[in-house]
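PROTOCOL LOG
Step 1. Enter all chains and additional molecules of the complex.
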Amino acid sequence: MRQKLIVIGAGMASGRVIEHLVEQDPDAYDITLFNAEPRGNYNRIMLSPVLSGEKTYSDIVTHDDTWYAEHAVTCRFGEHIADIDRVAKTVTSENGDVLGYDKLLFGTGSNPFMIPLPGHDLDGVIAYRDLEDTERMMAMGPEKKVVVIGGGLLGLEAAAGMAARGADVTVVHIMGHLMERQLDEAAGYLLRKALTEKGITVKCSANSKEILGENGHVTGLSLDDGTVLPCDLLVMAVGIRPNVALAQASGIAVGRGIHVDDQMITSDADVLAVGECVEHNGAVFGLVAPLYDQAKVAAQTLQGQTASFVQKELSTKLKVTGCDLFSAGDFADGEGREDIVFRDPARGVYRRLVIENNVVIGAVMYGDTADSNWFFGLIRDKTDIADMRDTLIFGPAFQGGTPLDPLAAVAALPRDAEICGCNGICKGQIEDAISAGATDLGAIRAVTKASGSCGTCTGLVEQVLAHSLGDEFVIPAAQPMCGCTDLTHEDVRRMIKSQRLTTMAAVWQECAWKTTCGCHVCRPALNFYLLADWPLEYQDDPQSRFVNERKHANIQKDGTFSVVPRMWGGITTPDELRAIADAADKFGVPTVKVTGGQRIDLLGVRGEDLPDIWRDLNAAGMVSGHAYSKGLRTVKTCVGTDHCRFGTQDSTGLGIKLEKELWGSWTPHKLKLAVSGCPRNCAEATCKDIGVVCVDSGYQISIGGAAGMDVRETELLVQVATEEETINVVKAVTQAYRENAKYLDRIYKWMNKVGLDWIKSRVVDDLNERAALVARFELSQSIYRKDPWAEHVARQSDTYRPLANLSLEAAE
Amino acid sequence: MSNWIDIAALQDIPQRGARMVKTAHGCVAVFRTGEDEIYALDNACPHKAGPLAEGIVHGKAVTCPLHNWVISLETGLAQGADEGQVATHPARVEGGRILLDITCLRAKAVA
Ligand code: SRM
Ligand SMILES: Cc1cc2nc3c(=O)[nH]c(=O)nc-3n(C[C@H](O)[C@H](O)[C@H](O)COP(=O)(O)OP(=O)(O)OC[C@H]3O[C@@H](n4cnc5c(N)ncnc54)[C@H](O)[C@@H]3O)c2cc1C
Ligand code: SF4
Ligand code: FES
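Step 2. Run joint prediction.
Step 3. Record the structure below.
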C-alpha cells in the first residue's frame, strides 16, 4: 500500500528528495507538495544570472507541470501549511484543508534576516530570496539608485546584477572588507577593485543607521557617520535564519534550525527535514552542496534504507562575471598552521594556502581560479603535500617551479603611473626613453629628468630599466623594507602615490608582499605612509602601531607607562602644576621628572590607570604631549622679549603658536622644534629638527639639527620677516618631510638624501608649492590635530583594562 | 580534563591585537590574529618579561614591545636567533566567544 508523504516547501533540497524517491521507488508514496511560493521547484541559486540578464526564469525551472504530472506529485503551490497535528498525523493548509500523512518532510528553507532599522518596513525595502525579489530588482534600470546592505555573496550578486542593468548601485558593508567570511583582506581588496571597475560604489566599515522614506516609500539610507545615500530600492542581504516557526509550533525540537539526526529524522520519528531549515550536529547550512547530500539520505531513509549524512568541506564561488574568486576550507582557529602566499600584481592574482601537518586545510584565490578544483581536491582528500610544498602554490601545471618575480610590482604598473614625482615623469616616458636608447640611470636622467631631483624614485627607475632590458641591466642591490617585500621604502612610497593605494591590503597586493599581513617592521611604516598620503581616505590602524603610539604613552621596562602632558612652549601655570601634583598623588606615580623638553613627565603609571589620569589632566585643560610619537614632540622656547634684556622677538609666543599649529601631526620620525629669542640661542634651536632664531630683522629658520645619537647643527633654510611667514615655512617643510621621507629618518637624514637645495626649491623659492604644501598639511591636521587622550577616554577606556580577571576562578 | 570558560566576545580584542587576562599565577595575554584565531600566552617575554599583549601582532607571531623579539603564538618559542619560550595555554573560539581552559591555568598555579 502506498503511504502518504506530505512535503512542506518546494525548495532545492526537497525537490531533490522527490526526484530520488520517484526514481528509486515510484510506488512507495503518494506525494503532496505544498509551497508558499506560487510556483514549483526552481534553481534558486540561478536567480543571480536571471537578475543580470544572462538567463530567464524559464531556464531555471527544475521541475515543470508535466514533470509533476508524470510522477503523480500533487501540487499545492501558493499555499502554505499553517498547522500540524502530530498526534492525529495531519497538516492544515492555509485555507483550512486538513490532510493526513504517514511521513512528513520539512523543506522550509530559511528566511532572510532583516535588520530592524527604523524604516525597514517601508515599501521598496526588500531581501534577496525569491523570484519576486528578483523581479523587483530587474526593474532597476539606468537612472535608478539602489543601495545594497551586505557585502557577502548574496549582496554582491544582487549589486552586480543590478549594475549590469545600468542601475547606480552602492554596497554598504559593516566589516572592513568584502565577503569577510570567505575571503581574507587581500582577496577582499581585489574583489572590491573589480566591483568598483563595474561602476559599483563600495563602502566598507559602514554602519547603517536609518532607512529614510517619503509617503511610505524608501528614499535613502543614512549611515552612522552622517552620510546619506539616496535610493529607489534598498536590498538587505545580511544573512538568513532557518525557517523553523512551523516546526517549533508543532513541538518538534529546534535549536538554531530543526534538529535532525544523521538520517535526517527530527525529534518525531515520522517527520524528516532537509535543507537550510535543519541543524545537524550544531551546524546550519547555506549552500546547496550539503543539501543535496541531505536529500539523498532523506530519500533513502524514507525508503527504509540506512544511510547517513556526513558534513564535508565546502567551497564558495561568486557568480559575478569577471570576479573570479574561490574560497574553501578553514582559516580560523587552530595551532600549527602555516601560510603560503603568492601575488601577481600584473594579473591581479592572489593565492593563499593554509597548511597544517603537511595537509592543505584552506585556500583563498582571486583572479586565477583555474586550479581551484585541484586545490579543493587536496583539501578534501587531505593529500600529503610535503613533496611538492615548494611549488605547491603555482598549481598542478607548474610542478617544476618558477621563481617569484621580484620585478612583478613594477611590471604591473600602467604606463601612466607617475614614477618621478618631482618632474612628473610616468613609467611610459621612461620606457620610451629606454626604447630610444637610454640604457642606464644616467641616460634616463639626462633624457627624462626622472630621479634627477630628490632621487627617492631611483629604485623604481632602475626596476623599470631592469624590467625593460632584462639581463642587460643589473640592479644595484638596495635594502628592501623588510623580509615581506623586495621593494625599498622609497619604492613603496612611490607605488602608494602613483597607484593611489589607499589601504594596506592594496599595498600588500600591488607591491607583491610575500606575507599575508606584513610584520612589525613594515606595518608601522605603511601605516604612516598611507595616513600621510591619504589623510581623508585612509583609516589609521592602531594595530600597526608600536605600543607607545597605540596607547599614547611611553612603555617602561617594567610594563608601566609614562605620561607627559603638553606644556605649550614650556609655559605652565600654577593650576596646571597643581593638577599634575594631584594626579601624581591620586595615581601613586613613583617618579615626577622635569624632562629635557621643558615639561613634566609622570613615570611609572599603570596601564589600567591611563584613561583615568588622562581624564583628570584633560579636566585641568591639558592634552597629550605626544612624548611617545613619531610626530610633533616639543617646541622649546626661551623667555624672549617678554623678560630677557637681549630678546629681539616674542620667541615664547611664536613657539606656542607653532606648537598649537603642529601638534597631533604624525611625521616619519619625531619632530622637535625650538625658538630662541636671539643668537645666544638659549632654547638650543640650532640642534633641533627645525629651529628658529629670532634676530632684529626677523626670523632665521634652519633645519636638520639633532642632538641624539648624532649631534648636528642645523643649516639655514631661509630668513623671513614675519611670524606668519615663519609658521608657513615651518608647515611647508614639515609637510614636504611627511610626504617624502623614509619612515624613521629624522629631517637631517632625509636632507642628506634629497639635499637642502631641493627642499629650498620647494618651500622657499616656489611660493605656489609652498602654499600647496601648507594646504595639504592643514587638510591632514583637520583630522589629526586633536587630543588622542580625550578620544580614548571617551571611546575606548575599556580596552585599557584586563579582558577578564580569573584570579579567583583559578585559585578555587 | 579540560574546563573551558567563557572570557569575552571575540570582538573585544581587535584583529591583530591582544588583551590581557589576570589569573592567580600572573597575567595571560590573549591574542587575536588577522584571521580571527585566538592564542593565549603568558604575558611575559622570555627575554626580560616584556608585556607581550602590547606587541604588534603579525601572521601568527607577536613582536615584543620592549626589544623586538618575535614570539610564535603557536609554540611560544622565540623566532630567529633568539632563544627562549613562553608558556602557551589552550584557547579557542566558539560561536563568537573566546574560551580559555581554566584547568590548565589552575594546574599551573598549583605546580
Ligand atoms: C623623558 C626624556 C628624558 C628626560 O627625562 O628628559 C626622554 C626619554 C626618552 N627618550 Fe629622549 N627623552 C627626552 C628628551 C630627549 C632629547 C632632548 C630634547 O628633546 O631636547 C634628545 C636629544 C635631542 C634630539 O632628539 O635630537 C633625546 C634623544 C633621544 C633619542 C635619539 C634620537 C636620535 O635621532 O638620535 C632617542 C631614541 C629614538 O628616538 O629612537 C630617544 C628616546 C627616548 C625614549 C622614548 C626611549 C624609549 O623609546 O623608550 C625615552 C623614554 C623614557 C620613558 O620611558 O619615558 N631620545 N631625547 C625627554 C623627554 C622630552 C619631552 O618632554 O618630550
Ligand atoms: C539569489 C541566491 C543565490 C544563491 N546562490 C547560491 C550559490 O551560488 N551556491 C549555493 O550553494 N547556494 C546558493 N544560494 C543558497 C541556496 O539557494 C539555498 O541554500 C537553497 O535554495 C536552500 O534550499 P532549501 O530547499 O533548504 O530552501 P528553499 O530553496 O528556500 O525552499 C524553501 C521553500 O519552502 C517554502 N516554504 C516555507 N515555509 C513554508 C510553509 N509553511 N508551507 C509551504 N511552503 C513553505 C518557501 O516558500 C520556499 O519556496 C543562493 C540563494 C539565493 C537566494
Ligand atoms: S638617554 Fe633617553 S633613551 Fe637613554 S636611558 Fe636616558 S631616557 Fe632612556
Ligand atoms: S623583554 Fe621582550 S624582547 Fe626584551
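Step 4. Note key features.
Residues 552-624 of chain A form a domain with the Sulfite Reductase Hemoprotein; domain 2 fold (CATH 3.90.480.10).
Chain A has five domains: 3-110+242-302, 125-238, 315-394, 552-624, 632-784.
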